[in-house]
Each structure stands twice: as structure tokens, then as C-alpha cells.
Amino acid sequence: MVKKLLWATGMMSLLFPTMAFAAEPTAASVNLSLDTLWVMLAFVLVLFMQGGFILLEVGSTRMKNAGHVAGKTIFTTGLCSLVFWAISYSLIFTEGNSFLGGLSDAFFNPSLSIADGIGGTSIFFLFQLAFAAVSLSIAWGGFAERAKLSVYLVFTILFSIVIYPVIAHWIWGGGWLASHGKQDFAGSTVVHLTGAMAALAATILLKPRIGKFNKDGTVNSILGHNQVYSVLSVLFLWFGWFGFNAGSTVAVGDGFFGFVAFNTHLAAGAGAVAALIVSWIFLGKADIPTMLNGALAGLVAITASCAFVDPWAAVVIGLIAGGAMYFTMKFFDKMKIDDPIGVLSVHGVAGILGTLSTGFFATPELVEKVGIGKAGLFYGGGIDQLWVQVYGVVTSGAFAFAVSFILLFAIKKIMGLRVTEEEEVIGLDLSEHGSYGYPEQMKKAGTGYNSISG
Length: 454
Hints:
Elements: H1 2-15, H2 17-21, H3 27-60, H4 66-93, H5 122-139, H6 149-172, H7 176-179, H8 188-206, H9 227-245, H10 256-283, H11 288-305, H12 311-334, H13 343-361, H14 364-370, H15 384-414, H16 421-426, H17 428-433, H18 439-444
Helix pairs in contact: 3-4, 3-5, 3-9, 4-5, 4-6, 5-8, 6-8, 6-15, 8-13, 8-15, 9-10, 9-11, 10-11, 10-12, 11-12, 11-13, 12-13, 13-15
């Protein structure tokens, strides 16, 4: 019996040598493996947000453009991924100078091991790529229902090389704002404000959609075709935001990611409630699109500060962002700026407010834990951190807008930005792709659509 047992043990050792020689895993290796798994899950959550952006833009625009809006998101996300692999990642995270990183990691070749940490692995790359793709999708709100498909192609490449990596390097890649202690935990400035400023440049150069404004300056509401899509989009984005904010901890060991998720959730709820109440007061009705944008504004605002503030402050930040979103949307209408998805208020204004909020609400304990910047004004830190947040927002926003405007102006002169009036009237589904997203419904509506020739 003993001989048989020894023989079986020997055979097992030969078949599975790791069983005989594998060392007992250390706590550090287990934690690193869990952290890596968490970042991978966070990437999936952030990538899933593209589904939310598709439903948000489709639901907020007209039926004749639905297929175009949905399809171009997949196309531009794919193109952004290739550009990010080829050059953008390197420009953000490699050593260069205080303005921009270098090219030593161009055509990124990830480490096959996590032995030295998550950075430099394919998983960290994917996580950062998802953020760049979100910023790009935010920008598309300013292009909606009137830009040529070719413009999406060209601007995706330019945005992914010339605009996003610069600001991301400044704040996340060791650039000059990082050295000044700029606090932007998950991207109120890097992702949301950058995308919103590109959208502002686009909507100014593209000019309003046909029928949006009357000659006397009054506004005509161009309603989206599916409010249920819009509601689902916010739920999907809210869900994905836990990867966006909590995933930015890139660790699970001490449970801090749960605190970040907690603040994120509170701010989203506060933004939705504030926007609903404000619309009820000023419109006489509880407006659903306003409520949805309020939730998103709360999420955008807490993105910078989710790791730096106490829960009560997260609620305050969400309430302020939700209310400000409503009034600034009205302001942009008065300025005759056609913003179909509300990008400027939801991502631009809320992004600014969220970034500034740490200058007021950042606590000494959380600042010490995260290791970036100083405490806020309300916690005895003086105006030092607030001042860093102010000039960080101004310089980042100005850079994103100015470069976007210059690039889009050049595109306008070279190849044009906007489809023709006839193409805009029949819809981008048919004019750009040869078929409607809703062929049966459009045929019943009397559009004359019957085939690819229309």
C-alpha cells in the first residue's frame, strides 16, 4: 500500500510539477492579482459606457439619424483604440517633458507579467484607453445631426493625438499640473471638460441645426425620438461610472474603492433630485430629460473629487451640479449655441464645478491617503489648492477649445464640416449610409425611402 502511494505521488509530481515545487502564494502576490482583476473589470465597465452614450445620443436625436449616431460610435471607438495603441498612450505616460510625454512606448508592447505592478500591462493600457474613448464620445455631442462622417474619422485621429494626450499628460502623466498638485481623481477635467470643449468648438463652427432657432432668436425644441432610450442610457452610464471612478483606485486591498463608489452614487442621486425639483419649479412640470441630465451632471462633478471629499460634500456637489446644469442649458440656448445632447452643461460646466470642488471640500485625511495636493479651503487648507484647481481648469479648457477650434476650422476649409441642407433634411442615416436605422417606420412616415437609392 505504501509503495502504491509513493508511486502515485511520484507520478503526480511528473504530470504536475508545479504541485511539487510551487511556493505558497504571498499576501502581496494575491493582492496584486486581485488589483489586476479589478482594473480589468473596471475597463469592462467603462467600455460599457459606450452603450450608454449610444442610447443617450440616439434617444436625444431624431429617428432619421439613429443608425448614423449609433454606428459612428462603434467606428470612432475602434479608430481611437488603434491610435491610442500607436501613439497616444506613449504621449501620456512616458517621460518627455512637462508639456507632453515621449514616444518610447509608441506601438505599445505590454508586459506579460504583473510582477512589477499593473502599470505597463495590457490591462492598464485598456483601462486608460477606455477613458480616452469616453472623452471622444462626449465631444460628438457637439457634432450631432449635421456633421459629415468623414469629419468623425479625421477628428478622431487628431483628438486622440493632439488634444487628449496633452491634457492627460499634464494631470495624470507627470506633467506640469501634476507637479503642482492638481486634483482630478478620475477625470472631470481630463475626460469631461476636454470632450466638452471640443464639442463647443464643433457646435460653433457647424452652426445650429436647421429649424433650431427662429429669426427673432426664439428657440424651437427639437425633441429626441425615444425618451426610454435616454432613461436606459443614464442607467447604463451610472452603472459604468463605478468602473470610471472606483476603478481609478486601481486597487482593492484596503477597500477604498468602495468609499469612492459610495460618493459617486450619492452625487448622482443628488444631481437627479436637484434637476427634477428645479425643472418642476421653473417649468411647472417635472421634466424627465432635465432629471436625466441632472444625474449625469452629478456623476461628472463627483468624478474629480470622489476620493477627496466626505459623503456629505458629495451630496452638496451633486446638488449644485444638477441645478447649475439646468440654468446653463438655458443660457446656451439664449446664446444660440445648439447643443443637442447637453454636453456643454452636463460635461463642461459640471466638469468645471467638480474640479473646483476639491479646492473647497478636500479633507486632510483623504488628501494624505491619495497623496495628491492639499486640503481644501473649508478644511483649513487656505486657497492654495483652490487656486491650483482654478488655473488647472482654465488652462486645460482653453487648450482643448483653442486646439479643437483650429483643427476643425482647418477641416472646414479643406473638406467641409457639415452635410448639405438636403442631406440634413432627409437624415444622415440615408445620406451617409444608404439606409435608415428604422426603415419600416421611415417608410410609413412617407419619406419615400424604399432602397439604398432612396
